[in-house]
Amino acid sequence: MRIHRLTVQAIGPFPGRHTIDLEELAAGGLFLLEGPTGAGKSTLLDAIVFALYGTVGAESSDDRLHSDHADPGVEPFVELVFSTGAGTFRVWRSPKHERPKRRGDGVTVQNARAKLWRLAGDSDVTPGVPVSAHVQEVGDELARIVVLDRAQFTQTVVLPQGQFAAFLRARPEDRRSVLQEVFGTEIYDRLQQRLAEMARQARETVHTAHQEVVSAADALARAAHGGEDPAPGRGAAPAAEEQTGRAAVASLREAAAVPDGDRLRKLAEQVCELWADRERRDVERRDACAAAESAARALLDSARELASRLARRADLEAAEHRLREDREAVEDAVARLDLARRAAPIGPLLDEVDRAVARDERAAAAREQAAVAASGHGLEDLTEPEAVRAALEEATTTLGWLEPLATIEEALPARARAVREARAEADAATRRTAELAAQVDARPAARQALVSELDRYRDAGSRRERARVAQEQAYAVLRAAQDAEATEAEVTAAKQRLEQAARDARGTLDAEHEVRRRWVAGMAGALAAELEPGRPCAVCGATEHPDPARATDEHAADEDVAAAERARAEADGLLTEARSTHTEVTTRLAGLRQAAGGASVAAAEEALDRAEAAFREAEAAVIRHAELDHRLAEHDAETGHVVERLGAARAADAARAERLEAQVRRLAEDEERCAEARGEHASVVERAERLRGRARAARRLADATAEVRTAREARADAAARLRERLDAVGLEDPEAARAALLPETEAASLADLVERHRAEATRVAQGLAEPELADLDGRTTPDVAAAEAAHADAMADLTRAAGAASEAALRCRQTLAAAERLTTAVQAHIEAAGRAAPVLRTAALATAGEGNTIDTTLATYVLLRRFEDVVAAANDRLATMSDGRYALERIDEREGGQRSRKAGLGLRVRDQVTETPRDPHTLSGGETFYVSLCLALGLADVVRSEAGGIELGTLFVDEGFGSLDPETLDAVMTELSRLREGGRAVGVVSHVSEMKDRIPDRVSIRREPSGASTVSVRR
Question: Which pLDDT band holds residue 452 (cuts at 50, 70, 90)?
Answer without folding.
Answer: confident
